[in-house]
Design brief:
Elements: H1 19-27, H2 65-69, H3 72-88, H4 92-125
Length: 129
């Protein structure tokens, strides 16, 4: 059974942690400090304090940045739409039935991971709100 330190905050390292470590843990939707506790208690609702190490997770705020990074999905979907159109010329209705759900699914899957990566980056660089 893991040690529960809910009242004691996690000790802050003297120097910033490697940003890649924080971002990897955030992408995995885990606490950037310990990598064990869950980062969210809902779809993208942050935990206030890590249940494993006691890190105050609310001091790292991603705000609207993840939604802007979702624009990357357009760089995946638009070339795929154009390639399919050039190669096969499918009807517009088929294009819509294929790409709208695909785009929405990508966005839904990417949003919590992008937010976690940004929170992990803030943790690694010690950027607190």
């Amino acid at each position: 059974m893991p040690l529960q330190l809910r009242d004691a905050p996690a000790p802050a390292p003297a120097e910033p942690a490697p940003w890649s470590l924080g971002m990897r843990r955030g992408l995995a939707q885990r606490c950037p400090a310990c990598g064990l506790g869950p980062l969210y208690r809902g779809y993208v609702k942050q935990q206030s304090i890590c249940s494993q190490c006691g890190e105050n997770l609310l001091q790292y705020r991603a705000d609207d940045a993840p939604a802007y990074f979702i624009l990357i999905i357009g760089h995946i979907v638009v070339p795929a739409v154009l390639l399919l159109e050039v190669l096969y010329h499918p009807p517009t209705s088929l294009q819509l039935m294929l790409w709208i759900p695909f785009t929405v699914a990508l966005a839904v899957l990417a949003l919590p991971r992008i937010k976690g990566a940004l929170i992990g980056l803030q943790w690694a660089l010690r950027l607190k709100s």
